[in-house]
Every structure is written in C-alpha cells, then in structure tokens.
Amino acid sequence: GDSVTQMEGPVTLSEEAFLTINCTYTATGYPSLFWYVQYPGEGLQLLLKATKADDKGSNKGFEATYRKETTSFHLEKGSVQVSDSAVYFCALSPEAAGNKLTFGGGTRVLVKP
Amino acid sequence: KAGVTQTPRYLIKTRGQQVTLSCSPISGHRSVSWYQQTPGQGLQFLFEYFSETQRNKGNFPGRFSGRQFSNSRSEMNVSTLELGDSALYLCASRTGTAATNEKLFFGSGTQLSVL
Predict the structure, then answer these.
(1) Residue in A41, A95, A105 closest to B100 by CB
(2) The three-state (H, E, C) secondary structure of chain B, written as one string
(3) In whole angstroms, what is the distance from residue B109 CA to residue B98 CA?
(4) Partner residue facing B101 (CB), from A32, A41, A43
C-alpha cells in the first residue's frame, strides 16, 4: 500500500537558519504530494502541494519539488522564524482517490530566537 | 466564513462506553472526512462522506462508524471504546465537487481520552 516516510524530529534550529525536512513516498501511479503544518492547539493547514513530477510547490517561503525519480518531496526554507515552530506532515493522495490522504509521521520543528 | 467546527473539544470516557463526535463543515462544503491522530500511528484516514453517502473508507474496525446529515454536518461514533482509541480526531471538509485533490480544511479536533 501507499506510505510516506519523513525524518523524525525534533529538529531544533536558530532563527534565520536553513530548514530541510526529508520526505519520501511509496505509491503506485502518480500521486499528488502535500505538506501540511500543525501549529500548537490547532488543526492541520495545507502549506503547499504539487500534483505532477517536477512541479514545485511554494508558500510562505517554503518550497518543495516533486521528484518522481527519487520518489521524494523534501521541504525547504531558507531562513526560518520563531513562528515557524510547528509539526510538519508530508502526505500523498492517490491519483484516483482524491483526498484520502496518507500521512508521514510528522516532524516537530522548534526555532529558537 | 466560519471554519470547520468540531465539538466537543475534549472528551473523557471509560472502556466499553460509546462516544459520538460532531463536525460542522464550512458552509457550502458537502464532503467531510475524518482522521485519527495518535503518537504511535500518526494520522490515519477513517472515512469520507459526501452528500450523506460514505465515499471512502480506511482500515478501521466496524466499531468506528459515521454518518452525514442533509445539511452536511457529520458525526462519527466509536462503540465499545478501547484504551487504544485515545486520540485526536480531526475532521476536514471540502466542496467535494472538484475532480481530485481539492484543498482540505481541517478543524481543531476532538481530543478523546479513554480511561
């Protein structure tokens, strides 16, 4: 079945540091890929998405590129802020099943001033 | 526009009891999905309802059930509660009319503790 693997946290960074969170997936066909973010006490929010190979999703300074050849969708941000402290989830949706999302385990990121 | 509303925010139950959770989607959204979030298993898809019909189902036992009303509000029910059912239950809504991969909007969840 489909699966998503992402690096375990917590990841602790200083403000303005570079952030990378690795995500790889296993799926048949051409899934759509997502990054969701969960701030403390809140539900998940869509951060960015990519629906086909080589697509780059971007939002709020975060970027991720859909790499079919390496089945990866790594999240990056060049300069993090304290407000980026949250749990980040990589997820996929099978091409035919719409929004039946399969999530990775989540990566907690803590940004210190 | 109000977001996805889940009630109650917290619940404490004992083993063997049953529980009903409620979700009110964003106005105009006809699809409601439910997810279970636990520290051990992460986020797992439970089921999706669209226009009062179950459209997708995850790999959960029959103790987990749901329904959707004509106003798109949804409830999920867990019967014969087990300790392992302790989790944050998240509801998400979308219009459901796009072909695929429409943006989901999540509620803040109901935290269920089973003692």
Answers:
(1) A95
(2) CCCCEEECCEEEECCCCCEEEEEECCCCCCEEEEEEEECCCEEEEEEEEECCEEEEECCCCCCEEEEECCCCCEEEEECCCCHHHCEEEEEEEECCCCCCCCCCEECCCEEEEEC
(3) 25
(4) A32
Distance from CA of B52 to the nearest CA of A (A): 17
C-alpha to C-alpha distance for A42 and A58, rounded to whole angstroms: 22
CA atoms within 13 A on the CB side of B104: 29
A50-79 pLDDT, tens per residue?
A: 988 999 999 999 999 999 999 999 999 999
Give the tokens for residue A100: 């039946």
Q: What pLDDT, in 10s, does the model give residues A16-48?
A: 999 999 999 999 888 999 999 999 888 899 999
CB contacts, 8 Å: A93 with chain B: 100-101
Nearest CA-CA partner of A18 in A49, A56, A61: A61
Angle at B30 between CA B27 and CA B35, to 5 degrees: 100
> 């969840």: which residue's tokens?
B109
